[in-house]
Design a protein that fits this description.
This protein has about 350 residues and is α+β, with helices and mostly antiparallel strands. It binds zinc ion (ZN).
Length: about 350
């Protein structure tokens, strides 16, 4: 390992969030052990008659799912944003207390009919099909003048609050620009003004030059635990060529991105031999018609576990004031993931 990174007690600047992350991995040196039997794995039946996502089952408002065999997408029956949300529009004189309609579209994406089969367990071709669907949805919303920003995300595992174990993700398309997307635009424009360079390209260059935090790579995409990771197993996956959103990726790039993603989540499952929980988001530029030349879309995986059965709870520093305190080093966690050898599936 490069000796530049042997220190276990330091803070690092997070250039995309513009905040410090404090690493105190020297406190984490005691050995741990765990009982594999105490951890719930993704078992169960292929079909659950009570599941509202399984094929041919009835959903809450009476719609019946088709007998789908691959990716199946439908409008969320309990939408957080909707085209029929109550019409609201008001503000005070100072524009301090402002409210608007919770307009948008919320969809559910089932990856596969099998109730018990996670993305990591599917063949690579089916994972690519999911990414083709993500690209198609992005293109669809890009052509909708009422939509400004798209979030595609998967909450996986009860550790991140998922109520239905049937593998699925969600799409929120809104008439406002999401917080991190807005911040990414600001920091990338600032960086360009100061240095003449693209911030995402520079991050990619540094990660590829260092090499020690890279988890998976092919001709089209690269995955790494970033130098400034907040979560122990946090991974960013970038297409190597810059795209503001998924709609402009070629078929080769979609398949390359899906393949690197698949490799990472398969490695996740093998760290502790469990169906590894995570939050995955597709971070994309707004689709409001402006051009976002400096934006570089990516996939972002933020798993809650730092050890088997041990969740990174957000508490005083994270919730109380907004800075992360990590007790593992990105380089050590990257090495764990690098050391996992995958078999062909
Ligand atoms: Zn199901």
């Amino acid at each position: 390992m490069d000796t530049t990174y042997v220190n276990k007690w330091e803070k690092r600047w997070h250039p995309l969030r513009e905040e410090w992350v404090v690493y105190a991995a020297h406190r984490n040196s005691r050995p741990w052990s765990f009982d594999k039997n105490s951890i719930q794995t993704n078992t169960g039946e292929i079909y659950d008659p009570t599941c509202y996502l399984c094929p041919a089952n009835k959903r809450v408002h009476g719609d019946v799912n088709p007998n789908y065999t691959g990716v199946f997408i439908f409008d969320n029956d309990h939408p957080v944003v909707g085209i029929n949300a109550p019409k609201v529009h008001s503000h005070d004189d100072d524009f301090l207390y402002v409210k608007e309609t919770a307009y948008g579209v919320a969809k559910v994406v089932c990856y596969h009919p099998h109730h018990n089969t996670s993305l990591s367990q599917l063949p690579g071709k089916m994972v690519a099909d999911v990414f083709y669907a993500f690209r198609a949805e992005t293109t669809l919303f890009k052509n909708d003048p009422t939509i400004k920003s798209i979030l595609i995300f998967e909450n996986k595992g009860k550790e991140v609050g998922v109520s239905n174990p049937h593998p699925h993700c969600q799409i929120y398309a809104t008439d406002f620009i999401f917080k991190f997307v807005d911040q990414h635009i600001k920091v990338s424009n600032d960086f360009k003004r100061k240095t003449g360079k693209n911030i995402f390209e520079q991050i990619l260059k540094k990660e590829m030059d260092d090499g020690i935090r890279i988890i998976a790579e092919n001709n089209f995409a690269v995955a790494f635990i970033p130098y400034f990771a907040r979560y122990a197993y946090e991974v960013m996956i970038f297409p190597k060529k810059r795209h503001a959103d998924l709609s402009t990726l070629s078929d080769d790039e979609i398949e390359g991105l899906a393949s690197v993603f698949h490799t990472v989540i398969r490695k996740y499952d093998l760290i502790y031999q469990i169906s590894f929980p995570y939050v995955m988001s597709v971070v994309q530029a707004p689709v409001d018609g402006d051009s976002y030349q400096e934006f570089h879309m990516y996939l972002w995986l933020q798993p809650p576990l730092r050890q088997p059965g041990l969740i990174k709870y957000l508490a005083g520093p994270e919730i109380g004031i907004g800075n992360f305190m990590a007790d593992t080093m990105p380089e050590e966690k990257a090495q764990e993931l690098k050391n996992i050898i995958l078999s062909e599936i």
